[in-house]
Design brief:
The protein is of the alpha/beta class. The chain is built from 13 helices and 15 strands. It has a seven-stranded mixed β-sheet with strand order 1-2-3-5-7-8-9, with helices on one face.
């Protein structure tokens, strides 16, 4: 019986603590259910010396809060909060909570009278502006909760104090940029080491909803690796919501711009996760690195405009040409290409969406052009600049500068110095037609002769 009674008392005690904790954390909601007024109203709980106020602070408490240890301000109606004016009458304050409301700015640093505050929480507001060194006088501050506000950037020097143990920042639209790399600092006493809810921090646009720590790590790594190149690097996109232990689950798309750098060769090193590479306006001739250098395995968008590329034979049969998404070779020295190999690659490449071949000196002859023209017609939606794919400019050539897709076979295969009315192929066709008529005539004559004389044709009689 005694044991059961003890269990009953323990259960009641646990339930009472749970109700008290629930009431303490959810007091704003409970009070709101009891009252719909928007005028300032406060309740003081003697047992724990807690003052809960809604929509502001009664004037009587501004100078009469000597005994208050916990101050909870629910649904603060003003856009500004002035600690210097509001908290001077609370010398014994240990915990301050500002929950919900229209607050956007804390206008002044916390006064020396509030030096005993250990727990400070401003949550669920529109807060985004803090003064310089707002907590310099809070010598005992251990916990800082700024969750669910509208901070886009955190000023570490303003928030970090020597006494601070834990800080909470989740629910803010934080920008994931190089300036946020402080989150990676794990040195003892650093603000990054004190963030208790790192796993819940999320980026705002353009990496909306992505885990902040992992994205900042990616940005930091990309910057360090970019120093090994002469290019400009940019993190374009991060795919995947992520969670704990999600680094491998994120798909990263980085862009590398090496345009107009005077390069004579394709870079031997690329930062990890490079998917877009711009090499426009250099002096590159050889595309072999696409097939031999593992750094190019992830590159799917390649811009090689205005270089010195004369051939893409190196890409024939390579795995890269089977998986690229965009390839731009405008303004190079291409006169022909392996048409069959390229068409076969495009047939098996489900990723290809853009191919640019314009402004090259394409050779227009009967050997190369018909097959090339068929490819252009078959993949008109893929070759985005098909109207710029023209025959090379040649004096005296009737096809000079003409759009290859629109040429007729006669224009391609008949030379300007030949008479199209008496082409050798036409002569051959006439001869073959005459021979056919001769054979048919001879067959009819032999048949008539056999019916009349009964003699077999001479050639048949000689056959054994």
């Amino acid at each position: 019986m005694g044991i059961k009674f003890n269990y009953f008392v323990l259960a009641l005690f646990t339930l009472a603590n749970a109700l008290h904790s629930s009431t303490k954390e959810g007091c704003c909601d409970l009070r709101q259910r009891r009252s719909n007024t928007t005028s300032a109203a406060c309740d003081f709980m003697e047992h724990d010396r807690r003052l809960v106020c809604f929509y502001g602070l009664d004037d009587k408490w501004k100078s009469g809060g000597e005994n208050v240890k916990t101050l909870v301000l629910c649904y603060w109606s003003l856009e500004a909060f002035d600690p210097q004016q509001t908290l001077r009458g609370f010398p014994s304050l240990r915990r301050l909570v500002i929950a919900n409301g229209n607050l956007t700015t804390v206008t002044s640093a916390f006064p020396p009278e509030a030096r005993s505050i250990e727990d400070l929480a401003i949550t669920g507001t529109n807060l985004r502006h803090l003064p310089d060194q707002p907590f310099a006088n809070l010598l005992k501050l251990k916990s800082l909760d700024l969750r669910n506000n509208t901070f886009a950037e955190i000023k570490v020097a303003a928030l970090n104090t020597p006494s601070l143990h834990h800080a909470y920042l989740s629910g803010n639209p934080l920008e994931c940029t190089e300036s946020t790399r402080w989150i990676l600092d794990q040195e003892k006493g650093s603000f990054g080491d004190k963030i208790a809810d790192k796993d819940n921090l999320r980026c705002t646009a353009p990496y909306e909803g992505r885990p902040l720590v992992q994205v900042v790590e990616i940005i930091n790594t990309l910057k360090d690796e970019c120093k090994r190149t002469v290019c400009d690097c940019e993190l374009v996109y991060v795919l995947g919501q992520g969670g704990r232990h999600i680094q491998r689950q994120l798909m990263v798309f980085a862009s590398l711009n090496c345009s107009h750098r005077g390069l004579t060769e394709m870079p031997s090193f690329l930062p990890g996760n490079t998917t877009t590479l711009r090499l426009t306006g250099n002096k590159i001739q050889d595309l072999t690195p696409l097939t031999t250098n593992p750094a190019y395995k992830g590159v799917i968008d390649l811009y090689l405009d205005d270089n010195l590329v004369e051939s893409i034979v190196q890409l024939e049969g390579s795995s890269w040409v089977d998986r690229f998404r965009l390839l731009s070779l405008r303004g190079n020295k291409l006169t022909d290409l392996p048409t069959y190999a390229l068409e076969n690659a495009l047939l098996h490449n489900g990723n290809a969406v853009s191919l640019y071949l314009g402004n090259n000196p394409w050779r227009c002859d009967c050997l190369f052009t018909p097959g090339f023209q068929d490819l252009l017609i078959r993949y008109t939606n893929l070759v985005k600049d098909v109207n710029d794919v023209r025959c090379t400019l040649t004096n005296g050539d009737e096809n000079s500068g003409k759009t290859i897709r629109d040429l007729t076979r006669t224009e391609i295969c008949v030379s300007s110095d030949e008479d199209p009315l008496l082409h050798p192929l036409d002569v051959l066709n006439i001869i073959l037609a005459l021979l056919i008529f001769l054979i048919i005539g001879k067959l009819l004559y032999d048949y008539w002769s056999f019916r009349k004389t009964g003699k077999l044709p001479w050639i048949v009689a000689k056959i054994p």
